[in-house]
Amino acid sequence: MKFFQVRLAQIQGKIRSRRLDRGVETSPAKSLLLFQHLKPKGLSIGMGFLTQKSHHFLEDVKSIGFTKTMDDLDRRKLSIFNQLNFFQLVTGLIVPITFLFGHSKFALNSFIIASLPALVSFIVLYFNLYRRYQAGMIVYFILYPVVTSFVYMKGMNLGVELFFILYGILSVFFLQEISHMLFAVTLSMVSYFILAVICKDYTFQLQTANFFFYVFNQIAAMVFIFYGLYLIKKENNLYQFGILGTNKALQENNIKIEKQKAEIEQKAKELSELNSLKNKLFSVIAHDLKSPMYALRNLFTQIQQQHLPLKELKSLIPDVVNDLNYTTGLMDNLLQWAKSQMQSGTVHLQTIDISDLTNEVVNLLLLQATSKEVVIRNQVKSKCYVLADKDMIQLVLRNLLSNAIKFTPEGGSIWIRLIEDENKYHITVQDTGIGMTKEALSKISDNNYYTTKGTSSEAGTGLGIMLCREFLLKNGGKLQIESEEGKGSRFSFDLPKAS
Prior knowledge:
The chain is of the alpha/beta class. Helix content is 70%, strand content 9%. The protein has three domains: 2-60; 73-252, no CATH class; 346-496, Histidine kinase-like ATPase, C-terminal domain (Heat Shock Protein 90). The chain has helices at 2-21, 28-62, 72-102, 108-114, 116-129, 133-153, 163-174, 178-198, 206-209, 211-288, 290-306, 310-342, 354-371, 390-406, 438-445, 463-474, and strands at residues 156-157, 204-205, 350-353, 375-378, 385-388, 413-420, 424-431, 480-484, 488-496. A five-stranded mixed beta sheet has the order 4-6-7-9-8. A two-stranded parallel sheet has the order 1-2. A two-stranded antiparallel sheet has the order 3-5. The longest helix has 78 residues, at 211-288. The two termini are 85 Å apart.
C-alpha cells in the first residue's frame, strides 16, 4: 500500500507542476478523492495476482515428477502424495523455526532434531522430482515414523503423535503389496502406542512451553488426516467413475461390434445366396437358354437344306412356339433380376390399380392358355389400388399365372381372386392342375432351386418362384403356397392399400 501512495504522490506532483505551468491549481481534496478511488482497485489487483500465483505454485507442487507416459491413476496418486508432503514440510518447519529465533533455551541441535520430519518430506519431494517414486515411498513410510520416534526419544514432545495415524492410513492407499502395507501400519501403530501412550517423561514438552503451537500441531495432524482421507475418497470416486465410464464405453463398443457382426453375417448370408443364384443363372444361361436357340437354328437349317413340306413344317411350329414362350419368360425374369441387383434392391413404390395389372398379365398369357384350352377366370374387381413397385408385381403375377398354365392340364381352370382387408389386399392365383408332392412343396418353400416340366412338357428353370418371393419381400408382402398332389395349387400374397 505504501508503494501505491508513493506512486500516487509522484503522479500528483507531475500533474500539479504541469497545471501550475498552465496557471491551473489542483486542490488537495481532489487528490485525496483520486487516492481513495485507486485504493480498492489496487487491493483487488494485488489479491488477484497473489491468488493466481498461489494457484500456479500449488499446481507446480502437485505435478512434481509427472511424465508424459504416466497413466492417469498414477498421476493422481502422485499428486496427492506431493501435496501431503509439501504441507507437512511447511508445517513441520513452523514450530522449530519459531522456537529457534524466539526461545532462548531452544538450542541449534534441538532445532535440527525437531526439523527431521520436515526434512523427510523434503527428501520425498526430491526423489519424486527425479522420478524415483519407489525410493520416495520407502523414505516416507519407513523414515517418517522412525524419525518422528527419534525426535520423541530425544526427549522432545512436539505434539505430532497423531501423524503416526496418518502414516498408517496413507500406507493402505499408496502401498500395493500387502506385506509392505502391514509393515508400515504396524510400525506406525506400535510407535504411536509406545511414544504417545506409554512414554510420558520428556525433557521438552511443547504443551507447557507454548500451548498455542501444541494445539496448532494437534490440529494440523487432524487436518492432515481428514484432508488425506478426503483426497483418497475423491481419488477413489474419480477412479470408480473412470471405471464406470470405461465399462459404459466397452458396453457401447460391444453393442456396436455385435451389431457389426450381425450385419457382416447378414451380408455374408446375402452374398452366399447371390453366389448360389449366380451359379444357377449361369446354369440357366448355359443350358436352358441355349437349348431353344439351338432348336430354332436346327429348324431353320432343315428348312434351308431339306426343303421341308408345309405340312411337316407346321407340325414343328408348336414346339418352337413353346420354346420361344419359355425363352421369352426366362429373358424377362433374367432382366428383372439383373435390374433389381444393379439398383441395389431399390423399390419404386407407386399407386397401382391391381385390376388393370392383372388384366395386362392375363392378356399377355392368353395365347399360352388358349393353346392348352385352359380357362383363366379373372375375378379381381376394378378400382383396387395398392402401393407397390409395378414392374416387380407384374413379374410376380406373370410368373404365378405362367406356372399355373404350365401345370394345369388341358381343359383346366385358373382363378385370380382378390380379397379386401382393413389395410391390405389378399391376392390369390389358384389352379386345378397336378399339384405338388410334399417333397416338392418343401423345396420350394425353403427357397431351394427346383424345376420340373409342365403337363405339356413345358420347360422351367426354377428361377420364377425365387424372384417372386424376393420381390414380394421388398414390397412388404410374403408368398404363401398351398398345394396337394392331384388337386392343384394356390399361390397367394398380400399388398398394402394405397392411401
